[in-house]
Specification:
Elements lengths: L32 H27 L1 H8 L3 H4 L1 H24 L1 H21 L3 H27 L8 H9 L4 H7 L2 H29 L13 H27 L5 H22 L8 H4 L2 H30 L8 H20 L6 H19 L12 H29 L4 H39 L7 H12 L8 H59 L3
Helix pairs in contact: 1-6, 1-8, 1-9, 4-5, 4-6, 4-10, 4-17, 5-6, 5-9, 6-7, 7-14, 7-16, 8-14, 10-11, 10-17, 13-15, 13-16, 13-17, 13-19, 14-16, 15-16, 15-19, 16-17, 17-19, 18-19
Length: about 550
């Protein structure tokens, strides 16, 4: 890069427009074109790299368990640990950047992530995989913010809200990209390829941040002694909640008493954190503000849309997996999703304004509802090509929603002051991370319940006296004539084949129920946002009609 960054505290004086927008954020001086282009490239690298390593594990978690020597239930801890670490990291990161500086915090987490990935590479066990997921989750939280900071250096002051919208959209591309990596490339030699990628990403990002640092930021004492008390109480509570949500539908809610004990332990931890914060002069989390109507609406909408987005990560993938498809057969589908998500980022950026934020989120909810409704007619012949449009719509809705949703909260935070930054960042992070787990838990549980109901309904129509059933049983037995000589065994296996076909059909019907439920939930969210827009418009007209 040509030129050098203006030194903080030197001869260069930063103008008011170049000041940091929040504690811990960098100054934003004017940069030459080459440096701006470099920052754009680094924002792309940091944004996508923040979620790509964890996505590799999440999309292959069912297969990884064998190489780790554990059951799939135990491997289900890995995504839960990542989401918990990512959700809770901002309790520390916001003030850490203000006190220690952006480079020190970001590079520390990247080094920790790389070290844990190296340990997992050398000694792949469930414990090392869990450690890698935890550090990866914390590093991802820092990298998302770093992406926004890099983009803030690119845009002029009037367009800087675009940095938040684009910076929140880029990490969403990590999951479809992970789906595009061939499984055989990752799985060879006990998933050596995947572990190598998980190591390469933080090392590459570490080198990039050292080679192209951000402008300086103000540093000051940010942490108070009671901050660590709150963090020490809230972090384990978040891990417990995420563990319950991540494993509940796998072990089933009522069959594992330890799930209840985890919830019971989380409640007093959250209660104690609330008591500490509500009795402080300058709390870490502004619980009083969280209870206001505006912020509760913001959290509810952000959570509801995130729940609906589980249609893609759980619903569509689950449907195709139930049909016998593997991850490699979904690559073209997720290539379309990747293109649609990129288009969603562009659409969010091009239509951005403070007045349009509710309209953008409402439109995203309507698009997600349409995509889910299109999937609700799936059957056992449905293949990825038939889901290109619906999943592209949901991918588009994802990135159209996430940036404007956070920007809505940040605007409210800026009106209150910098002390509210931790609160809004943590709140949004919780709605997206815990919401992702909650969405999969709710939809997965609903699908299981509906699959059992459909299986009972289908089995009621299976009678040996029915000519169609008898023909199907005979065909199943006949297909085994070359391998089984005993007619009784062939008949038994033929019945088992029919039972498996019935179970598959019941699962597909249950996924259709899930898609319809998601469509209704997304539509209801859009209607709710529309009602808020209508009420706000009417109040504005009434205020204009009053005499001065």
């Amino acid at each position: 890069m040509s030129g050098s960054l203006p030194p903080k505290g030197g001869d260069y004086e930063f103008s008011p427009e170049e000041q940091p927008f929040a504690p811990g954020s960098p100054y934003s001086p004017r940069h030459p074109a080459l440096r701006r282009a470099t920052y754009v490239a680094l924002a792309l690298l940091a944004g996508i790299g923040s979620t790509f390593p964890s996505a590799l594990t999440t999309v292959n978690v069912g297969s990884i368990s064998g190489s780790l020597g554990v059951y799939a239930v135990e491997a289900s801890w890995l995504p839960a640990i990542y989401f918990a670490a990512n959700a809770s990291a901002n309790l520390t990161l916001v003030k850490a950047r203000a006190q220690f500086g952006i480079p020190a915090v970001t590079q520390t987490f990247l080094i920790a992530s790389a070290a844990s990935a190296l340990l997992e590479l050398l000694h792949p066990t469930l414990a090392t995989a869990a450690l890698a997921r935890a550090f990866n989750g914390m590093a991802a939280a820092g990298l998302v913010t770093l992406t926004v900071y890099y983009l803030l250096q690119v845009f002029p002051p009037k367009l800087r809200p675009l940095a938040l919208v684009i910076g929140l959209g880029l990490p969403q591309l990590g999951t479809p990209l992970a789906r595009l990596v061939p499984v055989e490339l990752l799985a060879s030699d006990r998933w050596f390829g995947m572990h190598l990628l998980e190591l390469a990403v933080p090392l590459g990002l570490l080198a990039a941040t050292v080679a192209a640092p951000l402008p300086p930021s103000d540093r000051s004492r940010a942490f108070g002694p009671l901050d660590f008390v709150t963090i020490g109480l809230a972090v384990p509570a978040i891990f417990l909640i995420c563990g319950v949500l991540g494993l509940g539908r796998v072990v089933w809610w009522t069959d594992a008493p330890w799930l209840g004990w985890m919830l019971a332990a989380a409640v007093p931890l959250f209660t104690l954190a609330w008591l500490v914060e509500t009795n402080r002069a300058r709390p870490l989390i502004q619980f009083g503000w969280l209870g206001t109507r505006d912020i509760l609406r913001f959290a509810a909408v952000a959570l509801l849309v995130r729940l609906a987005l589980a249609e893609q990560t759980f619903g569509a993938v689950g449907l195709l997996t139930a049909g016998g498809l593997t991850n490699d057969q979904l690559q073209t589908l997720f290539a379309w999703v990747l293109v649609a998500m990129s288009a969603g980022i562009a659409a969010a950026a091009l239509t951005l304004s403070e007045r349009r934020l509710p309209w953008q989120v409402m439109t995203a909810a309507l698009i997600i509802a349409l995509g889910a409704w299109l999937d609700s007619g799936a059957n056992n012949l449905t293949r990825p090509s038939q889901l290109y449009l619906s999943q592209a719509l949901i991918g588009f809705g994802t990135t159209l929603f996430i940036g404007p949703a956070l920007l809505f909260g940040v605007i409210r935070m800026l009106k209150r002051g910098p002390d509210y930054l931790v609160t809004i960042v943590v709140l949004f992070s919780l709605t997206q991370n815990v919401g992702a787990l909650l969405g999969s838990a709710i939809l997965g549980s609903y699908q299981t319940i509906q699959a059992r109901a459909h299986a009972v309904a289908l089995s009621a129509h299976l009678s040996g006296a029915d000519p169609a059933v008898a023909t199907r049983l005979a065909a199943g037995a006949g297909s085994l004539a070359g391998t089984l000589a005993d007619p009784a065994q062939r008949a038994g296996q033929g019945a088992a084949l029919l039972g498996r076909a019935m179970t598959q059909e019941a699962n597909i019907l249950a996924f259709d129920d899930v898609f319809r439920a998601v469509a209704l939930m997304a539509l209801a969210t859009a209607v709710y946002i529309a009602s808020l827009i209508l009420v706000s418009t009417l109040r504005g007209k009434q205020a204009m009609g009053r005499p001065a």
